[in-house]
Each structure stands twice: as C-alpha cells, then as structure tokens.
Amino acid sequence: MAIDGISSGLSGVAGVAAPGASSNSDAPGFGDTLRQLIGEVETTAGDANTAVGRMIDGTGDVHEAMIALQKADVMFQLTMQIRNKIVQAYQDVMRMPV
Amino acid sequence: MGEIVTDAAIMAALGRQMTKAVQKQAVAAGNLANLDTPGYRAQEVSFADALEGQLATPALVATDSNHFGVAAGVPERGQTGDAPGLAARRDGNNVQLDKELLSLGRAGGEFSAAQAVLSAKFRLVRYAINEGR
Amino acid sequence: MSTLLSAMNASASALDVQRARMEVAVSNMANADSTRGADGQPYRRREVVLESVPGEPSAQFRGLVASGVRVAAVVEDQADFRRRFEPSHPDADAEGFVAVPNVDVPEEMVDMLGAARAYQANLTAITLIRDTIQRALELAR
Lengths: 98, 133, 141
What we know:
The complex is a heterotrimer of chains A (98), B (133) and C (141). Chain A is mainly alpha-helical and 98 residues long. Helices cover 85% and strands 0% of the residues of chain A. In chain A, helix 1 runs parallel beside helix 3. The longest helix of chain C is centred in the last third of the chain and has 33 residues. Chains in contact: A-B, A-C, B-C.
C-alpha cells in the first residue's frame, strides 16, 4: 500500500535537510520542520486508515472517511511541496561557485 | 464571533454539519419505516452545540494554520427523543408522512451544501499548496 | 453499522412490511365472498400486526441507528361473521341466512392505498439516502 511507503520515502528527505541545519545553527532547521510535517503526515494517514476501517466494518460514516482521506492527502501534498522546495534550494546553493 | 475563524475550525464545523444531517436523515427514515406501527411515537434528534460553540477552536490545537488539527470535528451523537406536538391517529401512531419526507429532503440539502463547501475548501488549499499548478 | 446504511435498512424493511400489508388486503378482497372454505367456515379476514425493530448500536459506533419495522404476526380478525338473508344461497342455514366473511371491501381498499402510499414514501427515502451517500463520495473531487 502506497501509504506505508510515505513515511519511509519522506524520512529519507530529512537527511537532505541536515546539511542546512548544521551549517547555519541559528536558523530554524529545515530538518525540524520537515520532521514535524512528516509526523503529521503519518498521523493524518493513520487517522484516514482508521476512518476507512470504521467505514468498512460499519461503525463509522462514509463522509468521515472521505474527510479523513482528504486531510491526509492535503497534508501529504503540502509536505512533498515543502520537501521539493528545500531540495531545490539545497541544490541551488550547492551549484553556487565559491 | 469576535475572533477570526480559522480554516480548521470552519472545516470541522462543516464536517459536524454533515454528521448532523446524516443523523436527521436516519431519524426520519426510522419514522417513515414505522408509519403504520401501532403506538409508535415519531422521533426527532437534537444537537447540543450552538453556532458559536461550533466555530470554537477544536480541542487539539493546530500548531499552524496550515495544519488541520488532529481529530478536529469528532462527531457527536445527537439526542433522540419523542417529537412533540404531533397528533396521534387511532392506532396511537403520530408519524406524519409529509413532515418526515420533508425532513429527509431538507437534511439531504444541508449535507449537499456542506459537502460542496468542504470540497471547495480542500480544492483551494490544494491549489495554494501546488501554487496553482 | 453506519448511520446512512442503517437508515437505508430501516426503509428497506418498511418496503417488505408494506408489501405484506398490500398482499393481505388483496387476499381479503379476493375472498370477501368465500362463504365456505376448506374448514366449512366462511373466510376470516386477516390482518398484519407490525412492530418496530429498534437498532442496536455496537459499542464503538458513534452514529445513530434507525429503527426498522417488521411483521410480528398475521392474525385473523376475530370479529363475528355478518349474516346476510339469502335463502337461495347454497350455504344458507335453516332460517335462510348466510354467514359471510367479516371483510369490508372499502376498508380493505383504504388499507391497500395506505400501504401503497407508505411503500412509495419509503422508496423515496431510500433514494434520498442513496443520494446523500453519493454526495459524501464527491468529497474527493
């Protein structure tokens, strides 16, 4: 299931941000932000799974499951976009002639 | 309502609106099913929270306005009870067919409206995240 | 089960019940003149006894469970047979009276129309609930 791959895929990203955090110690670490976002992605994805499971075994409503899925989807998209921006910024910096 | 209403609060309120509409439909369906059951009293469902309470910040506060807040909008079950003021027929049944059908239709409309708005909100957020792409 | 599905089940149970009511009314009307059945007695009017079926939500279910309905029993109306003066009737007794079924055809018509109306209303309910479920799925769009 793709959802389980999210956390492993995203946790690799946190390593990308590490150089940024170590070279500029007083800026808020991208790594911390990303780790927090990844945590929330896992939470909303877990909530979505719970809600869908409840819908399947009949203890929950359809619209609850749909809303939970939408929230998880948006959280994931947000995190991916931020991750892409960070990676791009990192690559821009590395390309700078010193 | 002095304070600014956050996205998270509005979306939680919309979710609750949908839950309420669904429960109203269920109560109306149960009444309609028992239209001819002797002695059956028509039920109605009521919800405790007022409008202001609906827009209050959810219990688990989101750390950022971009975040939706975990478990915001946990649905609550309304209170079911006998509907007042309905005339009973000879068999003791006081279900009014037209009234229940109207309730069903109206609740369906409330659900549709909340769903449409919530979908639009999700679309807006996704649009903002993806910078219009 | 989820609120909307329990509502649909309640409406569906009503369809079965109202159809049973209609069948009994039709049977009563068809036998309104059956002065001698298999047991030698006139046909006795039958009626359907309904009872509601309250839902039982499971512990984790946070929604609302709709009450359905079901046929508790089909009973025979114990009202006395009416007697009609018709000495030429093959089942007439010594005084020329025939015991006729305790069926009042206009009343059966009213029952049948009421059952048909209730059937229609519950069918509409099913449609409306199905629409709501479809709108819930549109949250993905």
